[in-house]
Amino acid sequence: MSLEPIEPNHALELYLADRENSVTQATLYSHRSRLGHFIRWCNEEEIENLNELSGRQLHEFRIWRRVEGDLAPATEKTQMDTLRVFIKWLESIDGVEQDLHTKVLSPTLTGNDNIRSVMLDSKRANQILEYFRKYEYASRPHVALELMWHTMMRVGAVHALDCADYDPANQALEIIHRPETGTPLKNGETGERFVALSEGVCEVLEDWIEHQRPAVTDEHDREPLVTTPEGRAHTTTLRGDCYRYTRPCVSTKECPHGRDIEECSAADYDGASECPSSVSPHALRRGGITHALSEDWPMKAVGDRANVSKTVLEMHYDSRSEEEKMEQRREYLDDL
């Protein structure tokens, strides 16, 4: 077989373009993010032609990524499984040796390895939201994090909301799958639902819409709920908001890690994700779900609100300890 030279960055763009019509935008974003680490490694190793890739190099990347990213087994598996798919695709366009994908190894998960545990706890969430209400009320980051915590929505659902989806009379949001105009939901039409809002969240939304929201439309002439002066707030922007405002130094002016805030690179606008205490939107969502369960919400009610099945809810999102679950069950002893 004659291989055709291909540069790493170009290969990634071709791969993403090929997958564009067969996967959701959320999946496409995830693959770009995961494979971005591989492209970065190729640049560091001065690999300019993927024809040269070997099984040994793929193993070296795996070790590099594990150490450099301080990855949990579940995260390492996800990233290496995505790389395997990418390498197999490269085989189909004569970019690498045939069957090279079989040499991409990933961990075999056992026990609780596949259960994610990072989340924002309710104490920190309240601290952050109090900061917003006092210092940056009804700003875009305030609206984004208030919705993520209160509704347990995925970041893609927040991105997909239009002003018309908010019903102030019924204090509710309608979440709609609109792939034809650029805002698909992760679970498609099964992700569509109505979400009730508290009076406090409604006040924030109404003040945002009336006083703070940049009055712009997107490329489909829709009026996004969460905007920047350029249009609909991208999921990358919303993730950045989450990382920036979950840094303890923002809401408390103190660093729990003993760093000098003035000198800390994670205190920079673009360095927020480097902070050991900053978290992603997914961790915010997991924290909101755990908080609701801890407040004795029925599991079905939480699952319906967050659009997640009972099985996935129990395995990946319910971060209550076994002792906490026992104490909550204790309340039902009098009914036996």
From TrEMBL:
- Read off the Gene3D superfamilies from this record: 1.10.150.130, Intergrase catalytic core
Q: Which UniProt keywords apply?
A: DNA integration, DNA recombination, DNA-binding
Tyr recombinase domain: residues covered:
115-330
Which residue intervals define the domain Core-binding (CB) in the entry? 6-91
Please name the Pfam families in this protein's record. Answer: Phage_integrase
Q: Which GO terms describe its biological process?
A: DNA integration; DNA recombination
Q: Which GO terms describe its molecular function?
A: DNA binding
Q: Which protein is depicted?
A: Tyrosine-type recombinase/integrase
Which organism is this entry from? Natronoglomus mannanivorans
